[in-house]
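Re: weekly structure request thread

Next one in the queue (156 aa):
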Amino acid sequence: MKHIVFAVLSMLMVVITGCSKDTAEVAGYIEHVKINGNLVQAKLDTGADFCSVDAEVIRTFKDGKKTFVEFNLLIDKDKKINITAERTRITQIKLRTGGLQDRPVVLLHIKIGHIAKSVEVNLANRAGFEYRVLLGRNFLENGVLVDSSKKFIFTE
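Done, posted below.
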């Protein structure tokens, strides 16, 4: 019965996302992904609208009419990668504890399996979360189906 329910849900996701079974990648709810070429563990969350990464914002600055954010992308407790990216906008996120938080949004290149795309990612302090990267629907809608019973289907 469990397999039938999963098959029906998978087919429904194919219809909803507009993916064919041939082009969709099935991923576990926890996967290794590459962000700007760096391997990191991510939680794939179909309930999240947007991607979020654990980052220490160092500074925001203007260069002409564009605004940039320099930040450290926290890969794990011992590894940080310094990135400077154009800020596309500022978003307000509803916190689990209540209230709103402003977060800068930048474009980052994310790859899982054969699917790679530059998507908007908000920069947040995710120190209280188990996973430093959260992939939301703005990335998953590009052909990733999530099997919530699996982890690490893809290997890098």
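Helices lie at 2-17, 137-140. Residues 2-17 form the longest helix (16 residues).
Next request, please.
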